[in-house]
Structures are given as C-alpha cells and as structure tokens.
User: Fold these one by one.
Assistant:
Number 1:
Amino acid sequence: MNVLSSGADFRLPARFIRVQRFIRRAWRGLREWCGDTAYERYLDSKGRRGAGPITLTREEYYVEQLNRRYSRPSRCC
C-alpha cells in the first residue's frame, strides 16, 4: 500500500515552503528586472483600458520596443 494513498497526512516541511516561496519571488524579481514581463504587463494594461483596435503579438511588441528605444538620437559623446 502506498503511503500517499493510505490516507496519511503528507505535508511539506515549513523550511521547504519558505525556500520555495523565496525562489519564486526571486525568479519574479529577476524576470521583472530583465524586462521579461513587459509583454504580460502590456496585455494587462490593454485589458484594463479596453481592447483597442490592435493588440500586438509578442514579436511585434518587442520589435516596437526596440524601435522606440533606438530610434531616438543618442546624446552620448
């Protein structure tokens, strides 16, 4: 008979849960810092404001962001 199917109460140790929670938060923070969540935030904002005439695909969104970033004149040097 399997321990899990025998009705035994199986709970993860609190330390494991805290470590898992920390790793999740760190991963979310890293994705936010790198800009990985930009497209998800774009979709969320489109949903809150009401769907406009065009919702960009992920590829179109990143191309537009690159164009926006590098189309301005550089003030360096």
Number 2:
Amino acid sequence: MKNLTIEEAKEFLEKEGYYVGNLWHIHDVQGKFKCSDAEAQEVLNGALNNEATIEQIWYAIDVHGENDGLERIEDEE
C-alpha cells in the first residue's frame, strides 16, 4: 500500500507540472555514509540546493531544449 501511495503522489505532482522521474531518497545517502534519516535529509538538501547543482541543471535545460529544437523565449527587459 505504501508504494501505491507514493505512486499516487508522483502522479499528482506530474499532473501539476513537476518532474518526478528522478527522485532521491535518504537510502542513497545512507548507502555511502553512516547517518540518521535526518542527517541524510540534510545531506540531500545541501547537495540538491547548492549553487553548482542548480547552475548545472539550468545549463542542461538549455542544452536539451536547444537540441530538441525548441524555440527560446527572449528575456523581456
């Protein structure tokens, strides 16, 4: 029943426009480090919200959008 609930949550978020195909779990951290669930959440938060990660995601969005032939929206100033 737990997996169904997770799948329902993912389906809801996807319908709302969120990408849910790559989710990270505390077990990803705990497979590398001895830590509590809370500590693993802190590691994930730091890893996924640091400036380098965010910049890389924006760069990859640009590259893949261009490679897919999407028309770029010009910034309004």
Number 3:
Amino acid sequence: MAEATFRHTFTSVNTSEDLDCHCRTSYGETIQADEIAEPNRMTLLSEHGERLVGFAQLRQGKAPIYVTAEAPAEIQRLYVIGEFHGTGVAQELKVPAWRKR
C-alpha cells in the first residue's frame, strides 16, 4: 500500500528512474517489517473492513540540534489511499491489536 500510494502521489513530478530507485530502497516486506519492529517508531493503521486504507509512522529519537523539545517526535509517513481522502481515515489511525500485546 505504501509504495502504491507513493507512486500515485509523486509519479507526475519525478522521472520513472528516480521513482523506481526511491521505491526499491524505501519499500518492501523486509524494509517495512524492520521499520515496524523498531522500538522508537510506532505504526498506526486505518482499515475499512478487512482492507488497509491508511497508515502513519511516528518516529522518536535524536533530532537536529535546532529542535529543543525534550522528547521530539516526527510524523515520518502519513499515507491514505486516494479514494479515501477526505473520509476521516487519518483521524481513525490506531495502534493495531497485534502490536498492543
């Protein structure tokens, strides 16, 4: 879902070579599994029935020196399938049940 959404959003402003390079190094089962397993990252999901329609990744950790917060965090990714834009999917993002165990 992440790669498909990224491609849909950015195809018109990138070359196919640049898009393919980015997707090759940023998306894939192993890459996403490693990200989900990182203790300083939280992945939130939104589902419509059995279908994943949106997700966000929040990351905590070392920030640039100009960020002065005590516990800085970043919204690293926020993806929603196009047909669900404007439907409230982003507000419904939640920690998946399997991650709460």
Number 4:
Amino acid sequence: MKLQFIRTLFMLALLIGVGNVAAKAQALSEGTIEADVPFSFTVRETTLPAGKYILQRISKVEPQVLEIRNARGRAAVTFEAENAQANQIPRNAELVFDKVGDQYFLSQIWSSDSDLGYQLPKTKAEERLEGDRMKAEHHSIFGKFVKKNKKGKVARAA
C-alpha cells in the first residue's frame, strides 16, 4: 500500500513537471508583438534604430529563439531568450528596456495572452556600463499583440 502511494505520488509529480515544461513552451506561440520604439536600442550585440518593430518566435521546436525585425524589413536580429514568468497576465504586450547611460538594451518581452514571457541576458556592453557605476533604469514600451489564426496567418490585434 505504501509503495503504491509513493508510485502514484511520483507519477503525479512527473505529470506536473511535464505540464510546466509544456506551458513554458507556449510563450508568444499564438502571435506577434508590434511596437513602435522611439529610440535606438541593442538586442544582444546588435544596435537597431528607432522605428516600428515586429517580434515573434522563429519556430515551435525552439520556443526561446525569437526574431525582432523592422516593420519595413530593413533590420532584423535573431536571438535566444530565457523563459520568464510574471505574477499575472499583463494587460498589454510590452517590451522592457534597460537604459544605462544613454543606451537602451532590450531586457524583457511580455505578450498580453500569457503570464509567460522572455528575459534576455545582459550584454557585455551593458555589463561594462554598469561596471562603471551606472545604474540601469527600466523603460517600457507597450505594443500590440497580434494573434495568428488557425492557419498560422496574422488575424487581428488582441
């Protein structure tokens, strides 16, 4: 009886763990984020100019690989981000930037359909600036979450 209880408890814990992994893989899976960024900013080691941007996942297989591209298609960066979890589902899609000195670095990405988002590691340039005793300020840019329809095409803003 005790052995059966332990087996059942183990199976339950395993199912919960698999469910959490599957849930984390769902961040930004249903659409894109469109945002107008009024300043130049750095993603990983690439600096992008101010402008309208579209952010999306590259594939279902690798949910941490994202792409941010200029709405005109002139500039794009593919990058890897870590999963992050908010305390509640954000009301708006949001790009969070760390401002260090006069430079902005993309640091977090949140869509308005999930409490799961993304966190980008600090770049070498950001760490160097913070090493010079500069403090990072957080700046948020609200965007528009655009859902995809069942065929994977962009449907309408959420």
